[in-house]
Amino acid sequence: MKFEVTILGSSSATPIFNRNPTAQVLNINEKLYLVDCAEGTQQQMLRFDVKASRIDYIFISHLHGDHYLGLVGLLSSMHLNGRKKALKIFGPPPLKEIVDLQLKYSETTLHYPLEWVFTDATTKGIILENQDIFVETIPLDHRIPCTGFLFRQKKRLRKLIKEQIEELEIPVAYYSAIKKGNDYTAPDGTVYKNSTLTIEPAEPKSYAYVSDTLYVEKYLAQINSATLLYHEATFLNDMLDRANQTHHTTALQAGEVAVRVNAEKLVIGHFSARYKTLNELLEEAQSVFPNTELAVEGKTFVISE
Ligand SMILES: [Zn+2]
Ligand SMILES: [Zn+2]
Fold first, then answer.
1. How many helices (H) and strands (E) are present in the chain, helices listed first?
2. Which domain holds residue 79?
3. 277 pLDDT tier (thresholds 50, 70, 90)
4. 3-state secondary structure of 162
5. Based on the domain organization, do 264 and 188 belong to the same domain?
6. Ligand located closest to 234 CA
7. What spacing in Å lies between the alpha carbon of 37 and ligand 2's midpoint?
């Protein structure tokens, strides 16, 4: 099952030349999930060929402008482009008030329903479950209520051993039950154990999106063993005081988080506008966690094929 994330923006606070504030899009089994929606997100979607009509879920981590100021523009474009199907938005409760107010004064009644799911930054919880995944909020420690999001694949069905199935000429109608773990009884009464017909599916993969936060203990257990960990790394560690004051993380700390939670891979982002180039941030994170990459715009990270 396809499970990948494309970076649309990775700047913090303000856009700078060639770097947009935070947004990214997940493709999970050909469904698109937008995570944060800073200004410029629509331009980035056009640039990287992300179709707004394919997005059914939008997740907003918190109400600092560098994470949501593109939202109303995107909702308006969906309206103007004739969207009819519902859109689910997950975010802090005041976000609805903000959106409603903007729509009210532009006298816009959307032609499609918005379905709101409010996040609670004080406690973790499952906010979405569909046939492919679970999504949990990750309570973070920022200046205003902020949650990350943990996307976990559901455990998949067992995989049929094709040669065996063909040799026994098992009718297609039995496949579903066998994939669920049932044995197969042939017309002559012979029972074939499930373990001879199937193999274990791949372990479920996960993507942890850790947006603006201080480096604190409270979210570590929840993101343990993440296949791909996105962690903010606003500053180099020589700016640790500034990171603490503004409730952000340094690149070194992001690397330490990846080590401590035993992540498979780390992607760092949310870079301060002060850094015109990003190599030092990358090297600092890699000094503790070598398998680190930068959240470069347009780059796609594969979590599962
Ligand atoms: Zn931010
Ligand atoms: Zn913030």
1. 10, 18
2. 3-153+204-304
3. very high
4. helix
5. no
6. 1
7. 13
Residues designated catalytic: 66
Amino acid sitting at position 122:
T
Q: How far is the CA of 248 from the centre of ligand 1 (A)?
A: 9
226 and 186 in one domain? no
Mean pLDDT estimate for the chain: 96
How does 232-264 read in b/e, with b if 16+ C-beta sit within 10 Å? bbbbbbebbeebeebbbbbbbbbbbbbebbebe
Distance (angstroms) between ligand 1 centre and the Cα of 165 equals: 52
Structure tokens at 13: 């606070």
Ligand nearest to the CA of 143: 2
pLDDT of residue 151: 98
78 and 173 housed in the same domain: no
Do 180 and 278 sit in the same domain of this protein?
no
Would you put residue 36 in left (φ > 0), alpha (ψ -120 to 50) or beta?
A: left
Give pLDDT, residue 121: 97
Per the structure, the count of domains in the chain is 2
The model's pLDDT over 175-184, given as tens digits with 9 standing for 90+, comes to: 999 999 999 9
Q: How confident is the model at residue 146 (pLDDT cuts 50, 70, 90)?
A: very high
Tokens 């004080």 belong to 122
Distance 227 CA to ligand 1 centre (A): 23
- Separation of CA 13 and ligand 1 centre (Å): 5
Measured from the alpha carbon of residue 232, the closest ligand is 1
3-state percent helix, strand, coil for the chain, nearest multiple of 5: 30, 30, 40
